[in-house]
Task: structure prediction
Amino acid sequence: MALHLLPPYEVRVTDELNYEFINRDNAMIMVCDSTDGKQHRRRNLFDRWFHFYNDGSLATINAEIGEDDYELLLSIYFKRTNPNRERLIRAFSELLNRDFYEIII
Result:
């Protein structure tokens, strides 16, 4: 069975995500950093939720920012029908263009 067809692990988190994104027009930015080396595992958990519950009504944009030995994995999740969709995409794009290295230090 494909990984994205398996249900997510954490039921409480899944319930909260489903409530916030399937039943409402909310958006979420997820940031996974590499300080403990588990950034890809975290993103995989969210990807798993997204692919398992997405009926086509949700959208995500993923990005990676790296600097030497530090990596950030960023994602934004939102409903395709969100009335602020274009604003969300612009804000996420602006976030990616910030100098994260200054913020991290």
Q: What stands out?
A: The two ends are 42 Å apart (CA to CA). The mean pLDDT is 80.
